[in-house]
Amino acid sequence: MDIRTRALREVCEPIGANVYFAPEAQQRYAALGLNYMSGYFTSRGASLGHVHGLVVTAAFGVFSPAIVVPAVDEGWSKTDRPTILQARYDGATASLRRLLGEPDARAIDRAVELLLRGLEVAEVAGHPLFSGLRALPFPGEPIGRLWRVCDMVREHRGDSHIAAWTRAGVRPVEIQLMSDVLMRIPLKSFSRTRGWTDEQMDAAIAGMREKGWLDEAGFTSEGRRLRDAIESDTDDMEINIVDAIGKDFDELIGILRPWAAVIVEAGIAGGGYPGNASSLASIGRASG
Question: How many domains does the chain have?
């Protein structure tokens, strides 16, 4: 495990992922005739192009195609790629301005400079969502640049994570059920929002118990080792990014941490990121 890659995730995730909970984004999707699901799948997937829902399913990893495909079909019946990408960008930046005000432009420029230094060496092969974002025109305004680079960091790690769990022989419904266990919430509760039916989840749980990954209490020791190894393998695929940032890594974390904390603390009601604010306080000097 490289603590730096997880520190980078902790500070970039809220800034990049805030768009999924921002009322400003949802209002723009609604104006196009989209509900939450069609807006989410179409707007996030649009970086890949005007693609079929099965392509979006493959790129996102943990969702059942039964909810993705009709949502993407619905989205493309009401909007086009440039329009939904602009709605996503406008919603994300409007939300960040509401939550963060107008952060110091020099601080944003420095954070963007350091993140781009890392992203310049980020692997493209096997990273479709990251590559789709990288291919888009780079925003001109500071808050837009900040959001874009954090979104790119988030999607690169997400692409790496999918590569790690598929290589480990874990299926989409299984990795999603593992998230329920990690979050210490009732099994199947969060996974149900990813479109998996009770029958599919029950079959997956039975299979995971047969493989020795789960028992009645949650992870077995074997299951915990497997899940930890997946996260560690994901870290390994992100090391070149933090290595490229190099000696300025702590400076970068110091710039981003306060902004990330504001978003986390705002919570869903404030259009922020529904994370755990205490996790940000534990980052410390990530590079040692």
Answer: 1
Helical ranges in 18-127 per DSSP H? 23-31, 36-45, 53-60, 65-78, 81-100, 105-119
What DSSP assignment string belongs to 64-80? Answer: -HHHHHHHHHHHHHH--
Q: What is the pLDDT of residue 279?
A: 43
Q: What b/e string do you get for 94-132 counting C-beta neighbours within 10 Å, with b at 16 or more?
A: bbbeebbeebeeebbeebbebbbebbeebbeeebbbbbb
Amino acid letter for position 202: D
What is the CA 214 to chain-centroid distance, rounded?
26
Closest CA to 237 of 130, 112, 116, 113: 130
Give 288 or 199, the one with higher predicted confidence. Answer: 199
Mean pLDDT of 271-286: 42
Beta-bridge partners for 218: 215
Tokens coding 203: 């079959």
Q: Which residue has the tokens 């789709």?
A: 132
**Per residue in 69-86, pLDDT tens?**
999 999 999 999 999 999
Under the phi-then-psi rule, with left for phi > 0, alpha for psi from -120 to 50, and beta for the rest, what region is 86? alpha
Is position 108 within any domain?
A: yes
pLDDT digits (tens, 9 = 90+) for 37-70: 999 999 999 999 999 999 999 999 999 999 999 9
Interhelix angle 249-266/3-17, nearest 10 degrees: 40
Q: Is residue 176 part of a domain?
A: no
Helix (H) / strand (E) element for 21: namely none
Full-model pTM: 0.93
Q: Which secondary structure element, helix H or strand E, spans residue 214, and what is its range?
A: strand 214-215
Beta bridge partners of 215: 218
Whether 19 is covered by a domain: the verdict is yes
179 lies in some domain: no
Q: Which domain holds residue 35?
A: 3-166+228-271
